[in-house]
Amino acid sequence: MAKKRLVLALGHDALGTNLPEQKNAVTKTAKAIADFIQDGWQVVITHGNTPQLGMIHTALNEFAKNHEGYTPAPMSVCSAMSQGYIGYDLQNALRSELIKRGIYKAVSTILTQVTVDPYDESSYTPMKVVGRVMNAEEAKEEEAKGNFVVKEGEGYRRIVAAPKPVAIVEIDAIRALADADQPVIAAGGGGIPVMEQGSHLKGASAVIEKDRAAGLLAKELDADVLMFITGVPNVVLNYGSDHPINIDKMTTAEAARYAGEGHFKTGSMLPKVESSIDFINAGKGRRAIITSLDGAKSALAGKGGTTIQ
Fold this sequence. Notes:
Blueprint: E1 5-10, H1 19-38, E2 42-47, H2 50-66, H3 75-100, E3 108-110, E4 113-116, E5 128-134, H4 136-144, E6 148-152, E7 155-160, E8 165-168, H5 171-179, E9 184-186, E10 192-197, E11 200-203, H6 210-220, E12 225-229, E13 235-237, E14 245-247, E15 249-250, H7 252-260, H8 269-281, E16 287-291, H9 296-300, E17 306-308
Parallel strand pairs: 1-2, 1-12, 2-9, 3-9, 4-10, 12-16, 15-17
Antiparallel strand pairs: 4-8, 5-7, 6-7, 10-11, 13-14, 16-17
Helix pairs in contact: 1-3, 2-3, 6-8, 7-8
């Protein structure tokens, strides 16, 4: 009987923010992933990268600012570096945990490019804040380059588009590893945003919404389950109000209705819910789960979290 396939989308809490936090966080995260593998699931892992991307972008651009002969790093390069850095810690932690359990599988990280549409509507309404705090003069210089900036506190920061993912360039390699029952880490941070220019792929000055990339990855791999690991144990209606309602299960129709009623925040729960709906509607027998790391194993067994079917 064919193994069931799980695409696991890790959020910030599963990775930490800085170097020591990430090292500690991935050790705990690896135990949860190893549980799934030990139970017979084929696991493909994707993850967020917002703090790591910001750290890398800030460091490289500050270095270039203060050292003649060095140039600022494009967003696509910073995204690639964050994938490698997070994948390095995560794959080593998972490899170590599997070996402790007597499971010998190679764990790989694939630097994943994801194409975007340069005419995506998000290009006209950038929303992702990245990089260091700039003064007014530096902000004007950024705008002169054609970039967008936003006032934040006493300074300014760059703001970039978050276009929808179109296609995963390395999907065949990712699929081959999954078919061979090898755990693989891919499309980290939503993937490295690129635009097709003939046979060439050009890095885009953007950040892809990681949850939408996770949904696309799950669709392309024909996964059975798409699981989002986030900071809350389940989806909540009326979040932040005096009358919150925890949701254990909902249909795609119910999820779409709740989204239309404004229960889910843009850039937080909304893309997880919308990506879940899209993934489920694109195949048969699929389900999506939204839960915390601590509740992941129980949620996969139908005993916690929020399941969408």
